[in-house]
Amino acid sequence: MTNPVTLDGHEGAIGEFDEKRAENAVRELLIAVGENPDREGLRETPARVARAYKEIFAGLWQEPEEVLTTTFDLGHDEMVLVKDIEVFSTCEHHLLPFVGVAHVGYIPATSGKITGLSKLARLVDVYARRPQVQERLTTQIADSLMTILEARGVIVVIECEHMCMSLRGIRKPGAKTTTSAVRGQLRDAATRAEAMSLIMAK
Ligand SMILES: Nc1nc2c(ncn2[C@@H]2O[C@H](COP(=O)(O)OP(=O)(O)OP(=O)(O)O)[C@@H](O)[C@H]2O)c(=O)[nH]1
Ligand SMILES: [Zn+2]
């Protein structure tokens, strides 16, 4: 996999994931914080962390088109909404997790082209598994549904807690950030209100 990602303002992948380099960097980090990377418990840690980073940033090597492949022409032209899709992403400022849920809704193209429901969750993962900010994650999901599915409207609402705000710095555990992106026909006040009431309903 060597396709660099260059989507909307994202720096993208600039090379293959270099496991050895990541491992060396983690070893250096352990030394920098005053640890001994050669002690029993830490000996395998750099390699483990490198593998973990490869996984949490796997989205850098995926394109949204790869996951929105399964489409059906059902002639369905009403809104489709998937709620409470688990989000696990990494804030690009501190490389700490932000976690929460995404709600993704769209009004299919006039052709009735829809995608598999699980593909919406896969799409969230493609963009979440990159160094991110929540706002960009939200707009990237919305924009790719508009362009790839040719949706007539899209709404994406994401609610997350940022570990960089909980564990360090301001230390406010429990604070939730909500971001939304609304496109096309979902900008219409009545349609948007209907979508929001479905999203807010427990
Ligand atoms: N808008 C936005 N900000 C984020 C996101 N994730 C983290 N941040 C913020 O990024 C900012 C980085 O601020 P800096 O002043 O450069 O870094 P810092 O000194 O570590 O900031 P503090 O977190 O306030 O201690 C912080 O305010 C974070 O809360 C995100 O997804 N979206
Ligand atoms: Zn952060």
From TrEMBL:
Q: Which UniProt keywords apply?
A: GTP-binding, Hydrolase, Metal-binding, Nucleotide-binding, One-carbon metabolism, Zinc
Q: Where is the GTP cyclohydrolase I domain?
A: 23-199
Q: Which InterPro entries match?
A: GTP-CH-I_C/QueF, GTP-CH-I_N, GTP_CycHdrlase_I, GTP_CycHdrlase_I_CS, GTP_CycHdrlase_I_dom
The question of whether GTP-binding is a record keyword is answered with: yes
EC number(s) stated in the UniProt entry for this protein:
3.5.4.16
Q: Which domain of life is it from?
A: Bacteria
> Gene3D superfamilies attached here?
1.10.286.10, 3.30.1130.10
Any Gene Ontology biological process: tetrahydrofolate biosynthetic process
Q: Where does Zn(2+) bind?
A: C91, H94, C164
Q: Which family does it belong to?
A: Belongs to the GTP cyclohydrolase I family.
NCBIfam families for the chain: folE, PRK09347.1-2, PRK09347.1-3
Q: What is this protein called?
A: GTP cyclohydrolase 1
Origin species, per record, is Wenjunlia tyrosinilytica
